[in-house]
Structures are given as C-alpha cells and as structure tokens.
Sequence to fold (155 residues):
Amino acid sequence: MRKSWVKKGLVCGIICILVITTSMATATVNSVKMSKQMNTNVNSLSYTFLFKEPGFSSIQAAGSDYTKIDMQGCLAIGKQAGDPSMPVRIVTLLLPPKKVVTSIDVVGTPVPINSSGINLKEKPILPYQKPIPIGSIEQQEFTRKPLRGNITNVI
Fold:
C-alpha cells in the first residue's frame, strides 16, 4: 500500500513539474513577442467613431419656429452665439508615453439623411445661445445671425 502512495506521489510530482515548465515556456514566448511589439516604431493610431442618424424636431424660441438637430452621444453647440447649433462629439484620446501628436486626419463617409419634411428656409436651425451661469438673474437676449450662402448645404 505504501508503494502505491509513493507511485501516485511521483506521478503527481512529474505532472506538476510538466505543467509548471509548460506555463513558464508559454509566458517566456509571450513576453518576447510583447517586447518585440513594444520595440517596433508605431507611427500612427487609428480610432473609429460611429454616429447614429440625427433626429430633427421643431422648436419655438423667441417667437419664431426653428429646427433642432439631435444626435445620440453629441452636444448641440455653436461656434459663437447666434450661429447654428450643431451636434458635436467631444473625444478624449490617451496617447502612448513620450509620444507627441504631429497631425490629426479626420476621415468621414458621407451618409444620406432622410430630410423629407424639413424646410430650413421656413424653420432654420436653432441658433446657439450664450450659456447662462447658475444663479444668474440677468435676462439673456436671444441672438440670431443672418443666414449666408446656400442653406441646403448645412444638412
């Protein structure tokens, strides 16, 4: 009976040594692959952002009718007060250590939008307004800049 316990212990010991050796070999190969990848000079990063189709709604402000553009995951902001309020997505990217951005290329694919029932001449895009500080009692004047150029190029 004692011999069978010794044989079982010996077999278990050999299996443990084989498992440990195999795992160490795998870890060594993976670390060598990772170090080779880290040493290669990566000159660019690529990110893809997907956008859902915008939604259009009618809104009334300062006694006039306007079209509001909504897109999931975007903020409706304008460059200056009175400019059209357009959906914008703010993106924060983490750069690899000790890397500097030399250029940013934005590539997009035009997608046709179903704009049936939207007349931007009758109901222009809602103008962006200056933000009002919390607790401010000052009344804000509604700002709207006159439209320039071809209005159908906006959408």
Summary: Residues 51-94+117-131+141-146 form one domain. Helices lie at 2-39.
